[in-house]
Amino acid sequence: MITSYTNPKLKNIRELMNRSRARKKAGAFVTEGIRMFNEIPEELIEEVYVSESFHEKNPGISGETVSEPVFRKLSDTQNPQGILCVVKQPEFDPEACLSREQGLYLILERIQDPGNLGTIVRTAEAAGVSCIIMDRDTTDLYAPKVIRSTMGSVFRVPCFYTEDLSGTIAEMKAKGIVLYAADLKGSVFYNEVKYPGKTAFMIGNEGNGLKPETAEKADERIKIPMKGKTESLNAAVAAALLMYGYMNAMV
Predict the structure, then answer these.
(1) Phi, psi (rounded to 5 degrees) for 180
(2) d(CA 134, CA 202)
(3) Which residues does 49 contact at the CB level (< 8 Å), separation at least 6?
């Protein structure tokens, strides 16, 4: 049993939980809770740690036992469920994702809120999104708060970061994917568009939207109807409306 918070294994876990650079270098991240444990593909599980009480209640789940006070201190949640895993980052083939005959894609630029990113990934699974492409200024997909918000969808929705967003956009256009930028200056409402089979929605930063030079690369700018004095919507809400708008248009 691990009884010291300074144990080298736990130090590695803290690094993975707190530092994006450590997660990127290791190609791994940390999940907590029994629901997330049940969502992880078996081949991605690297290490499992359980509290004493969890081990007593769930003898069928094997893992390294951690004393109760140490586990509570290690946990990133207010009410730890007693199980924590080190998980390999899932790998998806961007070329295969972008080469489908039909598909819905999301391009995310500078999304900063972990809850927004996680919710977008979760909603994307529900809406049947083929792939999510993110620029390097978007928050880390594998941060603990993002992972919790995905509710397991991170293991099933192909997601990847691009080092060259402009180049990726050009590649998508070459593959026949039509790009729509979510933009307050849009000329048409999102629910008035008849979307083609290969569609991508471009969604920008919560406060500032897409960069002007990115929005200019879209085939069309679309907007969401809003009443009152509201100037913009939460990025995850806007993404959900666009994704389901596409679904409705394709029915």
Answers:
(1) -120, 125
(2) 10
(3) 2, 9, 13, 63, 64, 65, 66, 71, 74, 83, 84, 85
Question: Do the beta carbons of residue 133 and residue 162 sit within 8 Å?
Answer: yes
Q: Tokens in use for 182?
A: 């979510």
pLDDT, averaged across the chain: 95
Per-residue pLDDT tens over the stretch 188-243: 999 999 999 999 999 999 888 999 999 999 999 999 998 887 777 899 999 999 99
End-to-end CA distance of the chain: 55
Interval 142-174: pLDDT, tens: 999 999 999 999 999 999 999 999 999 999 999
Residue in the block written with tokens 């895993």: 85
Q: Cα angle vertex 22, ends 18, 25, to 5°? A: 160
**216 burial via Cβ count (<10 Å: 0-12, 13-18, 19+):** exposed
Burial class (CB in 10 A: 0-12, 13-18, 19+), 25: exposed
Domain ranges of the chain: 8-88, 94-250
Domain 94-250 falls in which CATH fold?
A: Alpha/beta knot (3.40.1280)
Nearest Cα neighbor of 63 from 8, 4, 9, 133 is 9
Q: Assign domain 8-88 to its CATH superfamily.
A: Ribosomal protein L30/S12 (3.30.1330.30)
